[in-house]
Input
Amino acid sequence: MKRFYITTPIYYVNDVPHLGHAYTTVAADVLARYHDPQRDKKDKNDREVFFLTGTDEHGQKAEQAAKKTGEPIQEYVDRHAKVFQDLWPKLNITNDDFIRTTEPRHTAKVQLALQTLKDKRLIYAADYEGWYCVPDERFWTEKDLKEGNCPDCGRKVDQIREKNYFFRMSDYQKRLMEHIIQNPDFIQPPSRRNEVLGFLQKPLGDLCISRPKSRLPWGIELPFDHEYVAYVWFDALVNYISVLDYPDGKNFKTYWPASVHLIGKDILTTHAVYWSAMLMALELPLPEKIFAHGWWTVDGKKMSKSLGNVVAPGAAAEAVGADQFRYFLMREVPFGLDGDFSAAALVSRINVDLANNIGNLASRVLSMIEKYRNSKIPAKSKEKAVDWITYIIKYRNGMQLVVPSTPYHALDHMIAFCDDTNRFIVENAPWTLAKNEADKEKLDDVLYTAAESVRIIGVMFAPFMPDAAERLAKKLGLANIGTLDWGELEPGTAVSAGEPLFPRIDENKAKEIEAMLTPKTGEPAAAPAAPATPLAPQITIDDFMKVDLRTARVLHAEPVPKSNKLLKLKVDLGFEQRQVVAGIAQHYKPEDITGKNVVMVANLKPATLMGVESHGMLLAANDEGRLVLCGTWETVQGGIKVK
Ligand code: MSP
Output
């Protein structure tokens, strides 16, 4: 069995999934599908490729994020891991497993790795005094700091002194350097390899792999000191082997070492240096490749919640189709470099490459076969008139990450193959050949070559756009799109042009897409995964029925003297009129709410606010301090029960 193991980073659960997370995961899926075509149709046990993604759930980030919502931390991480798990099928991701670092199958292996290193005296305790960046959970020495701040994120650092456990990472500096030099493909692209070599020119310190529980209890307990938990990166990196049931599991024996760890450039040091040293210390082989891709910006700016420009991958896939979104991600930016996302670029890429180029070529060729050959694939051509083999070699290099080729280049060659096929059709003018019976054989040749080229283009884009490849296979009368070998189309097979392979996006639809992908100012960038305030404890229906909610109509409103928050309202409850005091003066002017239909708690005990009696309470949504009154969608009489 061909062995191929590909991984993505495991994503922190303090954030909702965004374009960056989708990028690495789509890229990994594309490579998994290239190495194991039809994997989505196979039973998981028959797959040749093991593709892993997951979530990184320990550490300060998760703990602080959970604290903000007020939820118990395990519930918080469960809910957030599910958001990632639910997203991937929408992008047609075919991961074989999804590892969560809070699962016992993982925690046990982290403890095993820690104990193994401790037994080998590769972990020691020492007093640590220095600087600590809380958000990054990293220690820094005085000389590391940049203007007194964290050199990585620029935020303020705290001075701390505490006992901790250290891994003898420095022991592996020389061996690691040698490994990188002897294996030029180990770290890709070459610019990242040079970056790591540069980093290793400076003395490599030992790695602090513990955090005292007194400061951070949310982690995996050290098996040899119950007062400490493992440093979140030590914990997280082990996921790549814990999922395979290291050290004796069948999967571990089959799949380790990983063929490719795909990561973003932000986490290169932790993978290329920390993880490699950890593996050397555990006496395990290093991954074959670590590929660090670049970062996406959005309309030239860094993606951030506060800028409200975070692109939600689920929304993008829904707006343009999962295939089209996947294609854009892999085709727009050379893999390894930074790139910029905009809805306009997405639309243009789909129209230019997919609708106009590939889509038109397919329908042009299929329509000619319909017209000139009664919808049947003609006899096989004697020559491969299009220079297919050159394109295939270049395409394969890209998909196999043969330096400096990447899947981006593979797509480049696919488009060049399309252009060449178009040129071939124009040069041979089948419409002219069709007019002359003497050219019958030549026309067969041209149509077969064109149709076979279209099929091979489908095989080339299949890992990127699996659904489109299936649609194309159907048009060509095939059960599946087949392989890159020339000549798989069988003469006599019935074909049909049918609907366009990729519909063009018109101006109106483009505007719609832009609106879907551009959050309006003030609107949360992605659907907030957590309730801003924790849910109250569950109640029974009987508890709920104790609250008498009624519709009411505001008859009159005026400010309460000496209060800038309160309005005094007269409301009509149908069976009576009431005076209610509401704390909404900063959100509504009296004239704004007069005549409005609201919902109120009608059986609340009367209270006096700023000397004014209030008999009832209006319902309002509290949107981070902005109050929005609740009413009924349609006008109803006052006093109707709401339940
Ligand atoms: N939990 C760690 C990884 C541990 S792996 C053992 C982590 N998680 S993360 O949620 O911050 O995700 C990091 C990865 O998401 C990056 O390495 C990259 O793959 C992807 N991206 C996050 N933002 C990105 C962009 N803006 N652009 C492209 N990819 C980026 O670090």
User: Anything to note?
Assistant: The longest helix spans residues 343-372. Confidence is low (pLDDT under 50) at residues 520-529.
